[in-house]
Design goal:
- 2% of the residues lie in helices and 38% in strands.
- The protein is mainly beta and 196 residues long.
- The protein has two domains: 93 residues, Immunoglobulin-like (Sandwich); 86 residues, Elongation Factor Tu (Ef-tu), domain 3, CATH 2.40.30.
- Strands 9-10-13-12-11-14 form a six-stranded antiparallel β-barrel.
- The protein is elongated.
Length: 196
């Protein structure tokens, strides 16, 4: 996919986004000054291991008519929003980014008394620092390969080398050693009700 800033015949205001070691989001410039109508404000994330969510990456929280459309995520580290620029003013906004890590299943944990498996030993891909105990609690785990491809789980807890998913959801039946997954610090969305 080509860069959105070269594809559209609009004025573009570039905004840099980074995350420090404490997890604090920094935006430059701040404030973002747009001095023309119909400008595209493009937020580019420069910190590896983080990305913009598919929706809601940039939300203007000040009531106004200058931002009639929701922001969209162009690619994992780029989001944009259209500023019509009809009214001069200051607008509050939020930036949401998601931390993520990829890994691989090394071996499955022991089965529950009901015969279901809810844990596995893991390794990070690429190799990285070990996770702190329960650092991943509440994060979403999505399988990227294997029989359970695209299945999402809620992480109930973890140690440095083992991860447990919530027993309230699906078990890990069908997950196998060498299956690859991504973990994101975003909650698991509830399933849609079944269609009748």
């Amino acid at each position: 996919m080509s860069d959105i800033t070269t594809e559209l015949p609009l004025p573009v205001k570039q905004v840099g986004v980074s995350i420090d070691g404490e997890g604090t989001i920094h935006v430059k410039p701040d404030p973002v000054v747009v001095d023309t109508a119909n400008a595209l404000v493009v937020f580019t994330l420069a910190t590896d291991g983080w990305h913009f969510p598919a929706t809601g990456a940039i939300v203007v929280t000040t009531p106004n008519g200058d931002f009639p459309y929701s922001a969209w995520t162009v690619k994992p580290q780029q989001a944009a929003i259209l500023d019509l620029g009809n009214d001069v003013g200051e607008y509050e906004y939020t930036v949401t980014i998601v931390n993520n890590a990829t890994g691989q299943v090394v071996s499955l944990g022991n089965a529950s008394p009901q015969g279901k498996v809810y844990s596995f030993k893991l390794k990070r891909l690429p190799a990285g620092p070990a996770f702190a105990p329960d650092e991943l609690r509440g994060w979403r785990l999505t399988m990227l390969a294997g029989k359970r491809f695209s299945q999402a789980y809620e992480v109930a807890g973890n140690t440095e080398a083992e991860l447990t998913v919530s027993s309230r959801g699906e078990s890990l039946d069908g997950v196998a050693p060498n299956d690859v997954f991504v973990i994101e610090n975003t909650p698991l969305l509830p399933s849609s009700p079944a269609q009748q």
